[in-house]
Amino acid sequence: MLIQPGELLAQINSPADLKKFQKEKLVQICDELRQFIVDNVSVYGGHFGASLGVVELTVALHYVLNTPEDQLVWDVGHQAYGHKILTGRRDQFHTNRVYGGISGFPKRKESEYDTFGVGHSSTSISAALGMAVGSKYKGVHKQHVAVIGDGSMTGGMAFEAMNHAGVSDSNVLIILNDNCMSIDPNVGALKDYLTDITTSHTYNKVKDEVWKLLGKFSKFGSSAQEVISKVEGAIKSAVLHQSNLFESLNLRYFGPVDGHDVNHLAEILKDLKDIPGPKILHCVTVKGKGYAPAENGNKTTWHAPGTFDKVTGEIFKKTPSIPQAPKYQDVFGNTLVELAEMDDRIMGVTPAMPSGSSMNIMMKAMPDRAFDVGIAEQHAVTFSAGLATQGLVPFCNIYSTFMQRAYDQVVHDVCLQNLPVVLCLDRAGFAGADGPTHHGAYDIAYFRCIPNLVVSAPMNEEELRNMMYSGSLHNGPYSIRYPRGKGVMPEWKTPFRQIPAGQGRIIKEGEEVAILTLGHIGNYAVEACETLQKEGLNPAHYDMRFAKPLDGELLHEVFGKFKKVITVEDGCLMGGFGSAVLEWMMDHGYQAQIKRLGIPDEVIEHGEQIELQKECGFDPDGIADAVRSMAEVAKSL
Asked: Which H or E run includes 335?
């Protein structure tokens, strides 16, 4: 079903078309754009609240800026749906996040209007500043704008970029989209600071007068601007003692302004185009603006609600007729509370993903022992290391793709000191519709090369519980990776059992071909083996559980018996689990034909997990085909 746009939106295929409308039409265009997003996401799913919150800002930016000549960078990109619709992708928007369709995030190869590929937070200011410095070096005058949310602003990289921007004298505008939310509610001192600014009635009254003065004097050259800047700074400091946070970094601060007044925003942006140097515009917005259930309801739920009834706001949830296996993240969250009740050394840490990781379960049950540290993965890991030095056992839960941002801290602060931190990597393997910026493809390879670190992956919920228990008893760093989505055990709450580090298990005895799997993907091998047995093929199956240390005793058995071996992992093939098995085989003098299944050395786009696994050849059919191929080779010999 193709959603029909409103009367005015139907005429906009590019920002050039938007500029043809009189300013008086912008409010209607915003209304139609917002409705188009609601109509599409309610039917097809996707991120929701963030894009509704910046509809007016998006329209104003493309109305005033000369995009794509002027360069616009969206931080993370959850909020860029309106941007995509206005820049030629309106009629393809129904394919958003669908296999083979457009990306849910800005992507350079998708459109010239997507100036920088995004998906992780806090990168926009650095990117826009690099663009601005590059343009200045080339003698090109253009606008460079970074739109960043207050949640992303808590990331250290944003502060590093602002520190550099303040001394760069480059033409960059930072727009702070302040809605007090990332995915979950924001935490930390910056949130309190921004709240102080937006709620100071005296400051908000005076800043309007400052703005008028600045507008009047900005046309009279640098000396007048210098005078008015000093007056502006003095008034701000007198009225609001904290107002120099951004200006202490030498960024001209303007705001706060109403982020939902499109005509006022357009006027402000037009004025700011004429003010040189680094500057920041503080826009106050409401996540989910214009759609009452999202605006007034649970902001976390409406970040990406799935499909819903746009009239009633009812989010559609499938009600299964038989008991279902839980999500791995929920097994983690509930098991962590169980372990913490048994062991008062256990603490929980997550960087801004308490609901996504289910750390919120412990935060509710034990608020003094579980911490959301904001969008700050590096800090989360080193903070956990600090806890560990005090005899505590922190469980630091970070999505696999975001753990990449804290790699040095894992090496330097945890593993070199051999500290007992349990690193839990959620969303390992393919992330699904979020695509390549969110796939957890690399953690096996980048973790197994670090000294002292155990690298484990459970095949089911029971193994996840036992690995968490084993990790809490391990005297050193211990990592556990598990995928997004459901497991396979409806009756998952089993007694704890310690698994020695590096101990695998035999799932099925067999002949001719051995399948070695790591993690949840082993369930696909079980399915493949059931299919193959009906065809008269009887491969063996081993759940290795650990990429490091490997189970040497089990591998001696495998290579002593089998000359045909298949390894299966939902991680990158280069340097991953299959590579580890090959290295072990060579080091121990065995010879065998090995077929490695996993994620190839290329960027895999978005789609359902099973679609991407099939594309890469390690879905159940792909595993079965690999066994058939090897068995045929064996017969021909």
From this structure: helix 328-342
What CATH number was assigned to the domain covering residues 328-481?
A: 3.40.50.970
DSSP 306: -
Per the CB < 8 A criterion, the answer to whether 59 and 6 are in contact is: no
Residue pair 79/105 in contact (Cβ under 8 Å)? The answer is no
pLDDT digits (tens, 9 = 90+) for 147-202: 999 888 888 899 999 999 999 888 999 999 988 755 566 556 666 666 665 555 44
Catalytic residues: 287, 377, 405
Cα(370)–Cα(416) distance, rounded to whole angstroms?
25
Q: What is the pLDDT of residue 195?
A: 61
| Residue where the block lists tokens 């199956």 | 541
End-to-end CA distance of the chain: give it in Å, rounded: 54
* HSE of 598, CA atoms in CB hemisphere, 13 A: 32
Domain extents in the chain? 9-200+240-293, 328-481, 505-636
Q: Is residue 80 a contact partner of residue 115, using CB atoms and an 8 Å limit?
A: no
Q: Which residues contact 271 (CB under 8 A, 6 or more apart)?
A: 214, 215, 218
CATH architecture classification, 505-636 = 3-Layer(aba) Sandwich (3.40)
> Is 116's pLDDT higher than 90?
yes
Query: Could you give phi then psi for residue 543, rounded to 5 degrees?
Result: -90, 105
Token readout for 63 is: 């109305």
φ/ψ of 548, rounded to 5, equals -160, 125
Output the CA torsion 448→450→452→456 (10° steps).
-20
Burial class (CB in 10 A: 0-12, 13-18, 19+), 190: middle
In the chain, count H helices and then E strands: 25, 17
Look at the alpha carbons of 55, 58, 61, 65 in this order and tell me if their dihedral is positive or negative: negative
**Strands across the sheet with 252-258, in order?**
71-74, 144-149, 173-178, 279-284, 252-258
C-alpha torsion angle, residues 10, 15, 21, 27 (rounded to 10): 80
Cis geometry, peptide bond prior to residue 549 (ω within 30 degrees of 0): yes
Same fold, 328-481 and 505-636: yes
Q: How many CB atoms lie within 10 A of CB 608?
A: 14
Are 118 and 124 in contact by the 8 Å Cβ rule? The answer is yes
Note the pTM of the prediction, 2 decimals.
0.87
Is residue 91 helix, strand or coil? coil
Query: Which of 286, 200, 187, 214 lies closest to 243, judged by CA?
Result: 200
* DSSP symbols for 562-584: -SEEEEEEEEESTTSHHHHHHHH
Give CA–CA dist 402/76, Å, rounded: 12
Q: Which residues pair with 73 in a beta bridge?
A: 146
Q: pLDDT: is 145 or 151 the higher one?
A: 145
Average the pLDDT over each of 110-114, 189-193, 259-263 and give the range with the smallest value. 189-193
Instruction: Name the class of domain 9-200+240-293.
Output: alpha beta
Contacts with 414 (C-beta within 8 Å, 6 or more apart), sequence order: 381, 384, 385, 388, 421, 423, 453, 477
pLDDT tens string 168-182: 888 999 999 988 755
